[in-house]
Amino acid sequence: MKEVVRDLELAGVQNVTLNEPLSRHTTWKVGGPADIFISPRNKAELERTMAVVRKHGLPWRVIGRGSNLLVRDGGIRGAVIKLGAGFDDLKVEGTRVIVGGGYSVIRLTSMVAKHGLTGLEFAGGIPGNVGGAVYMNAGAHGSEISRVLESAEVLLETGEWITLTNEQLEFQYRTSSLQTKYRGIVTEAVFQLQYGDRKEIASILARNKDRRRKTQPLQYPCAGSVFRNPPGDHAGRLIEASGLKGYRVGDAEVSTLHANFIINRGQATAKDVLTLIHHIIRTVEEKFGTTLEPEVQVVGEG
């Protein structure tokens, strides 16, 4: 790994850390270390970073704000990349919004609301960044990113820059072609919104925020919804009906407020969370014959 660090230094990539605990970068506050953690400050640095990664044949992955992600306790071998400050730009051109992949989704919803633009109110509580939201086709309150996204700029792992249209992203429920066809990093997204009434937009955002505060355990480290909703039903309803609210493994607990959330009561490990996830899947399957599928991505070594 010393040679990788040396090559990154020669390439002018500055924000590089060895054995970085990923518990510092996940919303669950669990996860072992990354062999090498890199936070490129801009597109040029990202390009040079990927060139070094390719040269050394390093496995790699990008993380956003660490939501929707469970890193096992053994950590991640290879490189973990997190977009730095240079990916945090926002430009509004009429109803068209161009935003960096590292931009906070929550901040984005607030900023476009100030411009009187409607279409992203559903995303006011999504804790990730724009790149992750595009990758996952994040959604809430009956809507999702695919409905307002025009295109996304992506740096492929080959070093090629491409722009994918909404159609090319092949959005489906919590998935996109970025998970199957185009392995790369979303550096910028373009949204097509509409003019709306500022007061009405602010009212919807406030209503959604109040609903989340009342129905989600936001005071604890968690990763949002753990399971995808099965067709025609809700994962939270099935888990609650299985009597699992409050069920606990170590410091990982099924939230008593929202059964599709697992909270970290302080000292939970990834193993605790995974054991709880498997227990939930088994219990719901035995009771209802439905196999729940995790929405969170589980990565790293056990």
From TrEMBL:
The Gene Ontology biological process terms listed for this entry are: cell division; cell wall organization; peptidoglycan biosynthetic process; regulation of cell shape
Which pathway is recorded for this entry?
Cell wall biogenesis; peptidoglycan biosynthesis
Which InterPro entries does the record associate with it?
Answer: FAD-bd_PCMH, FAD-bd_PCMH-like_sf, FAD-bd_PCMH_sub1, FAD-bd_PCMH_sub2, MurB, MurB_C, MurB_C_sf, Oxid_FAD_bind_N
The reaction(s) annotated as catalysed by this protein in its Swiss-Prot or TrEMBL entry are: UDP-N-acetyl-alpha-D-muramate + NADP(+) = UDP-N-acetyl-3-O-(1-carboxyvinyl)-alpha-D-glucosamine + NADPH + H(+)
Protein EC? 1.3.1.98
Q: Where in the cell is it found?
A: Cytoplasm
Can you give the residue ranges of the FAD-binding PCMH-type domain? 29-196
**Keywords from the named record:** Cell cycle, Cell division, Cell shape, Cell wall biogenesis/degradation, Cytoplasm, FAD, Flavoprotein, NADP, Oxidoreductase, Peptidoglycan synthesis
Broadest EC class assigned to this enzyme: oxidoreductase
Question: Which residues does UniProt mark as catalytic?
Answer: R174, S225 (proton donor), E295
What the entry lists under NCBIfam families is as follows:
murB (TIGR00179), PRK13905.1 (NF010480)
Q: What does the UniProt function comment say about this protein?
A: Cell wall formation.
Similarity comment text for this entry: Belongs to the MurB family.
Could you tell me what this protein is called?
UDP-N-acetylenolpyruvoylglucosamine reductase
Q: Which organism is it from?
A: Polycladomyces abyssicola
